[in-house]
Amino acid sequence: MKFRNPIISGMNPDPSICRVGEDFYLVTSTFEYFPGIPIYHSRDLVHWEMIGHCLTRNSQVKLVTGAPNCLNIYAPTIRWHNGVFYVIVTCVNGDNHGNFLVTTTDPTGTWSDPLELPFPGIDPSLFFDDDGKVYYHGTDQNVYLWEVDLKTGSAIGERHWIWQGTGANNPEGPHIYKINGMYYFLVAQGGTELCHMSVIARSKSLYGPYESCPHNPVLTNIGRSLPIKAIGHADLIDDPMGNWWAVCLGNRPLGYPFRHNLGRETMLAPVRWENGWPIIGENGAVLPEFESTSELPEYKPKGYVPGSAVHDRFCGDALHPSWNYIYNPVPGLITLTGSSLHLLGNAVSLSEDAPKTWLGRRQEHITCTAQMTMQFSPKEDGEEAGLTIYMNPGHHYEIAYTRMGGQNVVILRRRIGSLQAIEAKIPCAANHLTLYLACNRERYAFSYAADEGDLIPVGSGETSYLTTEVGGCFTGNFIAMYASGNGKNCTVTAEVISFNYDPIAE
Ligand code: 6LW
Question: Any bridge partners for residue 25, and if so which?
Fold first, then answer.
């Protein structure tokens, strides 16, 4: 079976995976986006479907503003034990949660409210030992292990600082496995940028001492001229045939200097064992394509396949699973009518860090297009509705229909840090518009059509300025529909009739 990386494209970092029989389940980080923690399912590790999210209720998580792309839901781990799925995760926002656990017996259904845990730090993981004891492990500057009572969430005994990797900075993302009677300890190190890597050690005793693998780092693309960079934060899994695999994060820079716009994505690599040590990928490297020896039958997903084209006509009473809010959704701003989507702009502009009338989906392809068709006729100056390519409040480009000086106009606005400019302002009297975005390695290009007219180009902006290295922290770009009164609530609603997202083969 040949497969290409990423296996799950767009902002899907810090992947963690478990298996129940023939079914694989995988979760990734979502930061300030809601619903939180997507759950992906596959049976061949290559073809995935999104089957739901862990955090779907305000009672589970209160996402906070203050540092877009850098706070909230970090690095979940998913494990299954005795019929129960466990997802343990950090909410990096100071006051509530910290590390918490949600559980379910059906990953396609609802997950429990959080069980708050007393353990400090980030990147929590769980290990279920053969003797029934369960261990929390995570990183609090350094990596540690602490027995936990999963019924109460309380710590048992004391904290054990175990193996800290091979000396690079930021030992994190730890996972413990028991394989052929040996305890293996997999740790990411080097930081989640170009020096990222994973290292592994083993011991006969859970508490060590741990012997470092002689060919550490077992996973890195450092020094390799490969289009995938910064791989690390891995999780190991075996398949029903007894073959082993690693999922990890990586990014795909646009060019040199290395800047990536899609966020960190989920990659897959085959694993083979030699002398009780894993050989991951191609001598530790993750390639854009692997010729795998897997005998897993090809899986045909039944649900939404991340990375596929989506043509949404907003029929029915549930949003397509690809859609996300920023922060917990504010009732009344974004509503389905059964045949369209209503966007009622609040006073919050795209450039403000606060819950806004914004509904976005991951940009999953470097080359792709997006198009929204809407009925909208702004009545007050400042009312706008549009289509944006969005990293965060300080980094976004958008085409919008608005009213300025008593005149309705189509505008192109670009915000890069403290620079903001309206680069096109075209008078328009229509109230039925199509807004169009073409994405490629070099430019984000915008066009519009009034009523049933032809698309008219209005301008473009460099792709390289909407990248994690320029403006982000841990996330990637989203393509979003939005509305805003820019300082006051809108008096009119934008009715979105359709939205298309189409990948284009590079
Ligand atoms: C995560 C850390 C990391 O907690 O990035 O890639 C942080 N590694 O392990 C946020 O994604």
Answer: 18, 41
- Alpha carbon 264 to its chain centroid, in Å, reads 7
Digit-coded pLDDT (tens) for 328-340:
999 999 999 999 9
Residues of the chain with pLDDT > 90, as a percent, come to: 97
Nearest to 101 by CA among 128, 136, 71, 140: 136
Nearest CA among 494, 501, 497, 458 for reference residue 386: 494
Query: Rounded to an integer, what distance in angstroms lies between the CA atom of residue 294 and that of residue 26?
Result: 19
Q: pTM of whole model > 0.90?
A: yes
Q: What is the pLDDT of residue 93?
A: 86
Ligand 1: which of 233, 260, 473 to mutate, most ligand atoms within 8 Å of CB? 233
CA distance 320 to 316: 10
Q: Which residues pair with 178 in a beta bridge?
A: 183
CA of 75 to the centre of ligand 1 (A): 6
CA neighbor of 350 nearest in space, from 294, 395, 289, 406: 395
Instruction: Identify the pLDDT of residue 225.
Output: 96
Beta partners for residue 243, in sequence order? none
Q: Are 137 and 143 in contact (CB under 8 A)?
A: yes
Instruction: Report which of 355, 433, 423, 365 is spatially closest to residue 401, judged by C-alpha positions.
Output: 433
23 flagged as catalytic: no
Q: What pLDDT is recorded for position 295? A: 83
The percent of residues in the chain predicted with pLDDT above 70, rounded, is: 99
Q: Examine residue 217 and say whether the peptide bond preceding it is cis (omega within 30 degrees of 0).
A: yes
Owner of token pair 């990734």: 28
With tokens 């809010």, the residue in question is 325
Residue 14 annotated among the catalytic residues of the structure: yes
Closest listed residue to residue 480, CA positions, set 291, 313, 343, 278: 343
Block residue for tokens 């298996």: 19
Res 94 pLDDT > 80: no
> What is the edge-to-edge ordering of all strands in the sheet holding 478-484?
357-362, 478-484, 384-392, 395-404, 407-416, 419-427
Lookup: tokens for 211: 């012997």
Averaged pLDDT for residues 105-117: 97
Write out residues with Cβ below 6 Å of ligand 1.
Answer: 13-14, 29, 74-75, 122-123, 172-173, 188, 192, 232-233, 249, 474
For 255, counting Cβ atoms within 10 Å of its Cβ (0-12 exposed, 13-18 middle, 19+ buried), the class is exposed
Separation of CA 122 from chain center: 17
Q: Token pair for residue 442?
A: 């070099």
Contact 115, 104 (CB under 8 A): no
* Cβ atoms of residues 463 and 260 within 8 Å: no
- Using alpha carbons only, what angle is made at residue 194 by residues 261 and 66, rounded to the nearest 5 degrees? 55
